[in-house]
């Protein structure tokens, strides 16, 4: 039998609890994505679920969520994934670039070195105007990718100019890009990378290197890479691929991964992806950490098309769906600080969602050398939710 003190204590607890239940029952969602196959590698979730959103964040994931008066998206027969994060684009080249990427499900992106110090303000303005979080990597070459030969003239790899550009745009510049191919840096590749690291280390930023067909062997270049740096175009063919003639991963590549270097696809259109190299690398078990498109306006009509199409190439090459989605969501969310907390549908996370359709059929995919392969599945963008708001719907 309770004494008076115990009775009053229990009564106060009950009084506090009842309104909480009522408040919960009366809670309203802003948007509910209904009946889709939710695939969230960050939570190891692959199941038919509803996703409820309130105040721009994921509020609930479950079966048969009562939507009430909330806006609804019918996702039956579709995939519901975290918003896609593309860490290698050139979206700032086009005034509509970020919006076009957003329509394809990309809710976070990096412009990877379109501009060097001379034109960085233009790229920064475009990134700041993007509807989704967008950051830029400054090209160590002052003229950026627009320059013929880029850093074949070593004076263009101007450390002081790059540092000054970062200092005045620190919130938007997220790293340094170094293009190292023989037709870009030529025999200067090692010194270009060294200078890129000098700039990046002054601000504790990562360096992304564009590899493939370098003059210097990777055994010379890779020791300059530090934890958090990114190697893009990882499936580029020889000379100086990440595999040797016996199709073994180079020891320096393995050592780089062990110390925290990120390996990225960087699909692109010229010299970066060849099917036989991709197959040989994947066969060793050396899988990409991240997928990216190397998006350009021209790429929308050939090879790249959109991010889901690029992801589909690796379904064709045998990677499972959850791994493919992880390489476009939770994995890239860990590479740049602006994306921390994204790439997931966990409760409380920003409500960024890519609604995709996985179609069965016969689909043609092309590498950078006009080699064609046929796959039986392809992902198509259907709708995009950014910060809890439906912002793009296809068809």
Provide a descriptive summary of the structure in words:
By secondary structure, the protein is of the alpha/beta class. The chain has a domain of 260 residues: TIM Barrel. The chain is built from eleven helices and 15 strands. Strands 1, 2, 3, 4, 5, 13, 14 and 15 form an eight-stranded mixed sheet that branches. It has a seven-stranded parallel sheet with strand order 6-7-8-9-10-11-12. β10, α6 and β11 form a beta-alpha-beta unit. α4 runs parallel beside α5. It is globular and about 65 Å long. The N terminus is likely disordered.
Helix content: 25-40%
What is the global morphology?
A: globular
Order of helices and strands: HEEEEEEHEHEHEHEHEHEHHHHEEE
Oligomeric state of the chains? single chain
Structural class: alpha/beta
Largest sheet: 8 strands, mixed
Content of β-strand:
25-35%
Question: Would you state the CATH class of the domain at 83-342?
Answer: Alpha Beta
Rg calc:
23 Å
> Quick check: average pLDDT?
93
The CATH superfamily label of the domain at 83-342 reads: Metal-dependent hydrolases
- Which parts are unreliable, with pLDDT below 50 for 5 consecutive residues or more? 1-26
């Amino acid at each position: 039998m309770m004494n008076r003190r115990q009775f009053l204590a229990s009564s106060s607890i009950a009084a506090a609890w009842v309104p909480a239940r009522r408040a919960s029952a009366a809670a309203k969602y802003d948007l509910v994505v209904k009946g889709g196959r939710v695939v969230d590698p960050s939570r190891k979730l692959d199941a038919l679920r509803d996703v409820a959103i309130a105040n721009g964040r994921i509020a609930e994931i479950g079966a048969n969520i009562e939507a009430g008066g909330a806006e609804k998206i019918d996702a039956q027969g579709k995939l519901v994934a975290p918003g896609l994060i593309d860490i290698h684009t050139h979206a700032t080249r086009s005034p509509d670039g970020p919006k076009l990427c957003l329509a394809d499900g990309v809710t976070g992106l990096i412009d990877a070195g379109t501009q060097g110090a001379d034109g960085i303000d233009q790229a920064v303005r475009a990134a700041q105007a993007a509807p989704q979080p967008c950051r830029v990597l400054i090209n160590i070459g002052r003229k950026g990718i627009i320059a013929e030969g880029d850093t074949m003239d070593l004076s263009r790899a101007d450390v002081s100019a790059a540092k000054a550009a970062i200092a005045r745009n620190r919130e938007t510049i997220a790293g340094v890009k170094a293009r190292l191919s023989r037709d870009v840096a030529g025999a200067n590749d090692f010194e270009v990378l060294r200078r890129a690291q000098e700039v990046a280390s002054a601000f504790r930023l990562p360096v992304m290197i564009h590899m493939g067909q370098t003059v210097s062997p990777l055994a010379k270049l890779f020791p300059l890479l530090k934890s958090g740096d990114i190697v893009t175009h990882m499936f580029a063919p020889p000379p100086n691929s990440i595999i040797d003639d016996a199709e073994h991963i180079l020891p320096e590549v393995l050592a780089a991964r062990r110390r925290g270097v990120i390996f990225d696809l960087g699909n692109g259109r010229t010299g970066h992806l060849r099917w036989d190299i991709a197959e040989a690398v994947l066969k060793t078990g050396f899988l990409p950490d991240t997928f990216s498109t190397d998006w350009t306006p021209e790429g929308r009509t050939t090879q790249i098309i959109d991010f889901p199409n690029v992801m589909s190439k690796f379904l064709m090459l045998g990677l499972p769906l959850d791994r493919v989605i992880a390489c476009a969501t939770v994995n890239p969310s860990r590479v740049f600080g602006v994306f921390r907390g994204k790439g997931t549908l966990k409760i409380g996370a920003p409500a960024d969602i890519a609604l995709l359709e996985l179609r069965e059929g016969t689909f043609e995919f092309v590498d950078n050398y006009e080699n064609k392969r046929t796959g039986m599945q392809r992902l198509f963008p259907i709708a995009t939710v950014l910060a809890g708001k439906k912002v793009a719907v296809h068809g």
